[in-house]
Design goal:
The protein has helices at 2-13, 54-57, 59-62, 65-75, 95-108, 120-133, 174-185, 201-215, 233-244, 257-269, 320-327, 342-357, 366-369, 380-396, 402-405, 408-411, 506-525, 539-576; strands spanning 22-24, 40-48, 82-90, 113-115, 137-139, 157-159, 189-195, 221-228, 249-253, 278-282, 290-291, 306-307, 330-335, 460-465, 471-480, 483-488. The protein is α/β, with parallel strands linked by helices. The chain crosses the membrane at residues 545-571.
């Protein structure tokens, strides 16, 4: 922290305007028929990344989400009296560039809101600067670190990303859901794998999850924790061989869709997709088994996304069936990803590149002009939702007076909603689902609920594939009244029918979730040395095979002893004669 403050102080004292990376975009007049005097222009400063993790947070494949969100807002009746002007600065998550851009946004351009850099450390820097000058900051991208929910340090930072750890600042995190899942099935011996990247996103997610295990005193033995590399097969092979010899429950994290697909291929190549293994991907992107592309031949009915096993190009890559089979051996613990308005999601995926190139964005950089028209950035939907959330909050200030809507003490409380959908501001809040006249408006990342620490309070779900290879949610993990509540989503055919971990019959499970549930039955019923206590069985159910074998061995030993004693008696009698 001292380093950050020193950097800020240095730039404040010796700040010089350097506009080489600055891209100015003209005002967007959203409603041409309104009178000029009744409208206000909202200046939006955007600290973007163009060359950093392009497939996930690149402005060329994500930036179109901003004008699309504004368009959707106006269709829903929000922000009718406002126009929007965008000032984009490609900071590339560099701390020095972030400070320079932040000071220009605040001191020279006097923007109304800042869309922060999509990287955690850069967002911390921008948020600290904004807290000094009292400007709201919207967070998106790789910003799931738990400390970003500290409202004392970052009082004006709002994100629609959940955090990965339970802490005093937020009671529900990915780590807590993972701990509850392991506890439910008594999986106590695990491996943790994650893909390496320059941003250390998965590394930090795994650190937060591991810290949660320790904080909650969860009886979890992490036998191996290791990095994997997308383009280093030799090192990855060594890691996987080590995992094979030590664990069968594997928690893993990937940053890109290429890594997700690579993992499934690697598991298949190393023969780690048998019934002995459970691969659980930890995610907070509302994607689960999906990929954000318009090339898919089929779409998941719940999320509206393309399955991970389909190739990322017009032609097949020959790996579809391998990845598809491997995916049936995988679970995903992710934020609820059900999108109600799937038609708009398809519209967004098809038009997001066009939106960033067209007015009002007018992005004319090489990256924007050469962007792939088939794949939307991984965090584009989160950018859409956080801009949508700002537009709602802006409207709920009930004023077009800058002295009111620019007052963070008035604006920031409008972001907050509760699980019951009651805002703490001056309006009746919702979960990004109700507009002014109570019509249903869908978010692009599922249900969004913002807590008092200005971060997302999420419903995590455990996903698998059913018999039709469609994504299905098995379990909800929610935090209610200071307790983690686990809700099983697959109904039983009768109250008397139950199955150890899931309260429904084997027949019902196979009808509804055949492919995965048959495998899960064998996983849970099978005794695997590496797993220890597998599921919440009774003592007899869990150890009956060993007990029966032990009894048989004892009986055999007793028979042998008896036979031996008889033989010795006979020999003694013969020797006496």
């Amino acid at each position: 922290m001292d380093v950050i403050w020193k950097v800020l102080l240095l730039f404040i004292l010796f700040y010089e305007v350097d506009g080489q990376n600055q891209t100015f975009i003209p005002t967007y007049n959203g409603t041409a028929n309104s009178t000029a005097g009744s409208r206000r222009t909202i200046k939006v400063g955007i600290a973007a990344a163009q060359q950093t993790q392009t497939g996930s947070i690149g402005w060329s494949v994500c930036g179109g989400a901003v004008p699309l969100a504004i368009e959707k807002l106006k269709q829903a009746g929000y922000a009718k009296n406002f126009d929007f002007e965008y000032i984009v600065d490609y900071t590339e998550c560099d701390l020095g560039s972030v400070v320079r851009a932040g000071l220009k946004f605040i001191k020279e351009l006097n923007v109304d809101v800042i869309i922060g850099p999509p990287c955690a450390q850069a967002l911390r820097t921008m948020s600290l600067l904004a807290s000094i000058y009292r400007k709201p900051v919207l967070g998106w991208g790789f910003v799931s670190e738990s400390d970003l929910s500290d409202v004392e340090r970052f009082p004006y930072l709002t994100t629609v990303l959940p955090n990965s750890q339970i802490s005093k600042f937020c009671v529900f995190r990915l780590g807590f859901a993972a701990a509850k899942m392991l506890q439910q099935y008594r999986w106590g011996r695990i491996a943790m794998l994650y893909y390496q990247s320059d941003l250390d996103y998965c590394s930090k997610v795994m650190d937060d999850v591991e810290a949660t295990f320790n904080d909650l005193d969860t009886p979890v033995n992490i036998v191996i924790k290791a990095e994997m590399y997308l383009n280093d097969n030799e090192t990855t092979d060594i890691v996987l061989q080590s995992v094979k010899s030590r664990a069968r429950i594997i928690l893993w994290c990937s940053q890109t869709v290429q890594e997700k697909r690579d993992y499934l291929i690697k598991m298949s190549q190393h023969d780690m997709i048998t019934i002995e293994y459970v691969h659980i991907m930890l995610s907070m992107r509302n994607i689960a088994f999906g990929v954000q592309t318009v090339l898919g031949k089929n779409l998941f009915t719940q999320s509206g996304l393309t399955p991970i096993w389909e190739s990322f190009s017009e032609v097949t890559d020959g790996m579809e069936e391998i990845v598809k089979h491997a995916a049936t051996r995988m679970l995903v613990l992710d934020v609820n990803s059900e999108v109600t308005d799937k038609s708009y999601l398809q519209y967004m995926q098809k038009n997001i590149i066009k939106a960033v190139r067209s007015p009002p964005m007018n992005c004319s950089t090489v990256d924007c002009l050469n962007a792939n028209n088939t794949i939307m950035g991984a965090y584009a939907r989160h950018l859409f939702d956080v801009v949508y959330l700002y537009g709602k909050a802006l409207t709920m200030t009930n004023s077009t007076d800058p002295a009111v809507y620019d007052d963070v003490d008035v604006l920031v409380p409008q972001f907050i909603t509760s699980f019951e959908g009651r805002g703490v501001g001056s309006f009746t809040g919702d979960r990004c689902g109700l507009n002014i006249d109570l019509r249903r408006i869908s978010c692009m990342t599922g249900e969004v609920v913002i807590s008092t620490n200005l971060t997302r309070m999420s419903i995590f779900q455990l996903y698998g594939l059913n018999a039709q290879y469609d994504q299905a949610a098995y379990i909800n993990f929610t935090f209610i009244n200071d307790k983690m509540v686990l809700t099983k989503l697959i109904p039983a055919t009768s109250p008397s029918q139950s199955f150890r971990a899931f309260p429904y019959s084997t027949k019902t499970r196979r009808q509804q979730f055949g492919t995965f549930m048959d495998t899960l039955d064998r996983w849970i019923l099978r005794f695997v040395d590496f797993l220890g206590n597998l599921a919440p069985f009774s003592f007899w159910e869990q150890y009956r095979i060993l007990i029966v074998v032990a009894i048989i061995l004892i009986l055999l030993l007793m028979v042998l002893i008896l036979v031996g004693c008889c033989c010795m008696i006979v020999v003694d009698e013969q020797s006496r004669r």
